[in-house]
Amino acid sequence: MRSERQDLPTPDEASLNHSSTVLEELAKKINTNEGWINFADFMQFILYEPGLGYYSSGTRKLGTGGDFTTAPEISNLFGVCLADQMIKILHSYPKQMILEIGAGSGQLAFDILTRLDNQGFVPDQYYILELSADLKDRQQRLLAKLPDNLLEKVTWLDSLPENLITGVILGNEVLDAMPCRRFRIQDEDIYEIGVTYTNQRLIEQDKLADEVIKDAIQSIEKELKRKFENGFVSEIRPNYKNWFSAISASLVSGAIMFIDYGCSRGEYYSTDRSTGTLVCHYQNMAHYDPLFLPGLQDLSAWVDFSLVADVGLEHGFKVETYTSHRDFLLSAGILELVDQISDQNKRFKTNQAVKQLLLPDQMGDTFKFMLLSKDCMIKESFTEARDFRYLL
Ligand SMILES: C[S@@+](CC[C@H](N)C(=O)[O-])C[C@H]1O[C@@H](n2cnc3c(N)ncnc32)[C@H](O)[C@@H]1O
Prior knowledge:
By secondary structure, the chain is of the alpha/beta class. It contains 15 helices and 16 strands. The model has no long low-confidence stretch (mean pLDDT about 95). The structure holds S-adenosylmethionine.
């Protein structure tokens, strides 16, 4: 549901006070930076600043009563499908490990471990890397409900380990939560969109882009064989490469599964998407005002999966699969799993939930599944999902 600022629910007093504190601290940061910060720094602050940012403070965030809903919050069959695919990779390793990045409420870890156990396949380790102390606490409370044989496999990490993982690294809706920079084409020039604090308000302000942004935009234009038109606004993540280098260094051998909303570069920067992909979520309503209630709302931008593929290739990975959420889940047998539910009421409810994961106008097409492998043989039969790699 898309909303205007005035349609959004009014926060309670405690939340408004928290947002005022975030704004005060953010204003200090902006002022010490000559009155302007780029959008990635703004996003980093309002999402992740310790004790203040949206992910670092105590609001509910995901699921019922939160601001947005992710696939594991919709149906446990999402985790079941991922677990079944993971087994195909993990079985060839003497030490089988999973590293989940940004585990949210912990629901996906819960569902994956439960399924692996039911299939007689308990991994040696299930690592979780979580930046948010608040979410880590929530994950720990949920995963404490696992039987001891599974709970003892779960370890939380504070930073990415080096040369540790043999198995699978998983990130569901993590890449879209990574800070992005924003640009605008104006008068044939490239501008960077940033944030200032003027008259006690946050205001969007453009500056001529620096060389990093200019080079990145020009190389996209070269690849697309066209110039962006005046007024075109979009996002870019120049830092993604550094982040991926650390992920790559943690993986000895195995595969990375990324699931997120996104598309190929050609689609991402198409003329039809001339206002960008940035979206804000507050109390399960989507809107486009990133300056609204700092610290209380989620902010994310789509993923350029061509960038994910390019950076993967540069680090010696192979892009094994790139397909839609719907195609991936169908080929992983999600409908057969629904059919196996004997209780009629439960089957009906699960069916409704699964529709949200599959329907093209919901998560079915906007979300993609990508599998990257490193020093690891992935059989062609890994998935029979339609192959969209030609789009990358
Ligand atoms: C949109 S939530 C998705 C949560 C969960 N994966 C799910 O599907 O429900 C984004 C998650 O990524 C985490 N996150 C974002 N950037 C991260 C990073 N660089 N390293 C680790 N976790 C990160 C956030 O704290 C949060 O848990």
